[in-house]
Amino acid sequence: MSNNIIEVRELKKYYPVQGGVFKRHIADVKAVDGVNLAIKKGECLGLVGESGCGKTTLGKTILRLNNATEGRIYFNEPQEKVEEVEGLLSSEDREERSRGQKLRKKIDITKFYGRRLLPLRQKIQIVFQDPSNSLNPRMLVKGIIAEPLITQKLMNAREIEKRVIELLYTVGMAKEHLMRYPHEFSGGQRQRIAIARALATYPEFMLMDEPTSALDVSVQAQILNLLQKLQADFQLTYLFVTHHLLVVKHISNRIAVMYLGKIMELGSTDDIFEDTHHPYTRALLSAIPIPDPETKMKKIILTGDVPNPVNPPKGCRFNPRCKYAEDICREAEPELEEASGNHFVACHRWKEL
Ligand code: SF4
User: Fold this and answer.
1) What is the pTM of this model?
2) pLDDT in tens, 198-211
3) How far, in Å, is the centroid of ligand 1 from the Cα of 260?
4) Fewest Cβ atoms closer than 10 Å to its Cβ: which of 23, 30, 228, 278?
5) CA geometry: angle 171, 210, 335, nearest 5 deg
């Protein structure tokens, strides 16, 4: 069996732009543009980048909340099977490619629709950024947490009631909270309820979409500690999306840095914080405030705006804002290449910098 719970190959998610009197398709917003990524079982992979870089779109496409434009997503499949399908799909032989397409339909979740998605919905869950919006204000806590269990038809009424109470205690709340509405709770408690709902169906993989960004600073640490405890207790795998680098440093085993729909750097948390190779990651790290007046870190100011994802720059997408850009950066797009061990970087000049 593979030790990857998720494998993403050449994933693209484009949003069509329509224009003119007849609303014709004139261009695409390339939110995710050819991402390759593997998430290992039991790890927390942090996904960071500026707003609009495509990190949330990537997470939601992996969860099949968005339909992928192109690419493959494998969930909990043996590595040999994934490699067999990928090998056949890239074959020069037409018959082999068509055999690959047939096999792909069985294991690539971008090809799952309707009832085939139901088992997946049980095993993969999401915690959204703002619990005020993600919880139905007209439902009691009891109903909110029970909803996925009822939809999935996993238990009878008595078992559901027992499970809901168990979940409330798991996230640090109590039985007396069952018959209250979301507005009767603080932001932190609402996020705990959202986490309990996400845990209800015994998921294996969870997308954390900036789960602490809408909370007070004092509550953020409590929620992060709770998420870490749950991960250890239930052997969960997280994809933790955030723009807050100190949060991912605290919770992640590995970090992927995204820019304009592409992964720019991927490595262990230590690789990224102690030995980063990509100029964009360096700029992000230099912007972290240091709570010590004695320590001064040179800030790297990124000039120019983030380019339009409808028409990303030729070559390296970061080249208009990179002070190290040379001719090759404007001509050829760098691929993610191995810098050391499990540290990958997409930059033509990383060895010199
Ligand atoms: Fe900068 Fe060139 Fe590296 Fe892109 S490839 S980050 S432009 S040095």
Assistant:
1) 0.92
2) 999 999 999 999 99
3) 14
4) 23
5) 130
Burial class (CB in 10 A: 0-12, 13-18, 19+), 316: buried
* Nearest partner of 14 among 31, 34, 37, judged by Cα: 31
Q: Whose CA is nearest to atom 5 of ligand 1?
A: 347
What tokens appear for 19 in the block? 């224009």
Contact in structure between 29 and 15 (CB atoms under 8 Å): yes
pLDDT digits (tens, 9 = 90+) for 302-352: 777 788 899 999 999 999 999 999 999 999 999 999 999 899 999 999 999
Q: Round to whole Å and give the CA distance between 321 and 37.
A: 25
| Angle, CA 83 vertex, CA 73 and CA 41 arms, to 5° | 55
Ligand 1, residue 317: give the atom nearest the CA. Answer: 4
What amino acid occupies position 153? Answer: K
Q: Locate all alpha helices (DSSP H) within 235-347, ordered by sequence.
A: 245-251, 269-274, 279-286, 327-331
- Pair of tokens at residue 125: 């869950």
